[in-house]
Structures are given as structure tokens and as C-alpha cells.
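Translate structure to sequence.
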């Protein structure tokens, strides 16, 4: 089964000046269960727009999106909340950890919204930090961690509610190439061992090489 399917997906912006930007134009893309796919293309080609629409952080102008076979209704906010709580995890270029919370609290935070009990939160949070190799830094604040360590915490957080799909917008974009390589390897390992599907946008050739498949965009369209 496909975890994601898009049909003739478009996103247009219209400005008062009459200018029209076609951020996405007629995208049909399928992502299989357990696949690791990277979106590549020049700056402005629509990678983030496509990822954000798949992740229900943005809505399309036209076209349809299916997650786990169910069509996304972008007007149904409780349906979108359910997808965010149960099915989709996010990793961002700038890590986006909560600065006043330590690593463990950051990882546990999404579980709070699913009403997971405190002790179970803590247990799972610690397991996830162990998984990303940061069990010993559970009580450190993000400011006390390196960029690569912060991104590992963010990956653990993305896994908190056992999503079937993780979406990551340039997850190695703020890291040096050596650290980026480690993050790429970690994501690939989680993909293989846990069967979580990954869709990443990237300019990083190492990340693209690690993917099962590269989807190329240019001017809001798929190429080749
Ligand atoms: N809110 C917006 N209003 C108008 N145009 C927008 C808006 N958001 C994105 N765009 C335009 O849509 C196009 C695609 O942008 P997008 O951010 O998806 O590109 P990208 O491939 O992620 O680029 P990068 O590699 O620089 O991150 C660009 O031309 C951009 O200027
Ligand atoms: Mg982008």
C-alpha cells in the first residue's frame, strides 16, 4: 500500500499586482510504505511546499492527497489534528526544540497530547533517547547540546507517538557534512528497523544517495 498519494496537486499564489506564482503544478507522487524518499531540486522548485501539503501544514489550491489510503480533508481540522497526533512526525531544518525543556521533556511533549500517562511517557522518552544515542543527555537543555545532538532529540521527538510517516525539511541543512552524514544514517536505520516511511527534502547529495528513491522537482513540476 502507498502511505502517501498525491493526485494532480497544485499550489498557486496570487498577488494584488496580478502576479501569480505556481509553487506546485500538477504533482502526482506516490510514497510506498517503508520507503525512504528524498525530494531534490533547485531553490524555489516547490520541495517544502509539497512536503508541507503532504504533512497537512499547508493546503493545496487544487488536487487530492491520500494518507494511508484515506483522502485528506484540509477543511476538517480535527481530522488534521488526528493525522498529526497519530500518523505523521516532523523534523525541521532548525530542530525547533522547546528551549526551556530538557531533551527528555522535548521528546515526551507530543505524548502529552495523546494523553499518555506520565510514567509511560518517561519510559518511552528514555527509550527513544537511547535509540538516538542520547540517553546520557536526557536532562540537558537544547542550548547545552550540539546541532547534531539537537537534531537527534528532534528525531526522537518525531517518533514519540509511533508515526507511520516522518517528514523532514532539509534535516541536515544546518549541520556540517560529517554530522549530516550521521543524521542521515540514523534516519535510514530507523526507517529500516522500524519500518517508518521517510520523506525528506534536501540539497545534500549524501542524503539523496541514502534514499531508496529521489524525486526531482523543477518549477513546481516533477522532472523525468
Ligand atoms: N507564502 C508564499 N507566498 C508566495 N509565494 C510563495 C509562498 N511560499 C512559497 N512561495 C513560492 O513558491 C515557490 C516554491 O517554494 P518552496 O519553499 O516550496 O521551494 P523549495 O524548493 O523548498 O526551496 P528551498 O530549496 O530554497 O527551500 C517559490 O517560488 C516561492 O517563492
Ligand atoms: Mg524549502
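Result:
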Amino acid at each position: 500500500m502507498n502511505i502517501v498519494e498525491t493526485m494532480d496537486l497544485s499550489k498557486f499564489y496570487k498577488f494584488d499586482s496580478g502576479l501569480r506564482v505556481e509553487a506546485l503544478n500538477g504533482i502526482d507522487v506516490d510514497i510506498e510504505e517503508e520507503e525512504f524518499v528524498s525530494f531534490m531540486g533547485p531553490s524555489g522548485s516547490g520541495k517544502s511546499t509539497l512536503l508541507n501539503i503532504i504533512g497537512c501544514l499547508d493546503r493545496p489550491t487544487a488536487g487530492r492527497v491520500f494518507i494511508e489510503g484515506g483522502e485528506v480533508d484540509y477543511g476538517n481540522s480535527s481530522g488534521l489534528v488526528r493525522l498529526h497526533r497519530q500518523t505523521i512526525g516532523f523534523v525541521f531544518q532548525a530542530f525547533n526544540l522547546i528551549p526551556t525543556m530538557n531533551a527528555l521533556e522535548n521528546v515526551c511533549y507530543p505524548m502529552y497530547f495523546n494523553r499518555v500517562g506520565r510514567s509511560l511517557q518517561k519510559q518511552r522518552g528514555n527509550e527513544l533517547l537511547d535509540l538516538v544515542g542520547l540517553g546520557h543527555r536526557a536532562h540537558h537543555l537544547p542550548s547545552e547540546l550540539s546541532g547534531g545532538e539537537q537534531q537527534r532529540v528532534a528525531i526522537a521527538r518525531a517518533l514519540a507517538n509511533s508515526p507511520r510517516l516522518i517528514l523532514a525539511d532539509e534535516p541536515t541543512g544546518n549541520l556540517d557534512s560529517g554530522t549530516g552524514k550521521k543524521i542521515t544514517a540514523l534516519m535510514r536505520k530507523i526507517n529500516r528497523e522500524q519500518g517508518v516511511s521517510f520523506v525528506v527534502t534536501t540539497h545534500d547529495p549524501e542524503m539523496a544517495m541514502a534514499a531508496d528513491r529521489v524525486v526531482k522537482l523543477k518549477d513546481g513540476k516533477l522532472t523525468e
